[in-house]
Design brief:
The protein contains 1 helix and 8 strands, in the order βββββββαβ. It has 75 residues and is mostly beta strands. It is globular and about 45 Å long. The model has no long low-confidence stretch (mean pLDDT 92).
Amino acid sequence: MIILKYWNPQYEIAFADWQNVYQFPQKIKMLREVYRGELYYRMPGSCKRISYKQLKRGLQKKQIIIHEELNLLPF
């Protein structure tokens, strides 16, 4: 279970903290990277970057919970 604390409705992105960022409605975890000294997030397999500063401008405090499936080992 992952608890996301902040929501940006313009980009439909939610934050648990600066390291764990999820894109909605697919609930895909975004990759973080540093480019020219700035923090950026991007989707896996995409080259489009969204800066942390852009996301931070429209943040709203909202609690969203993501339930992950349990992957039990067969032994």
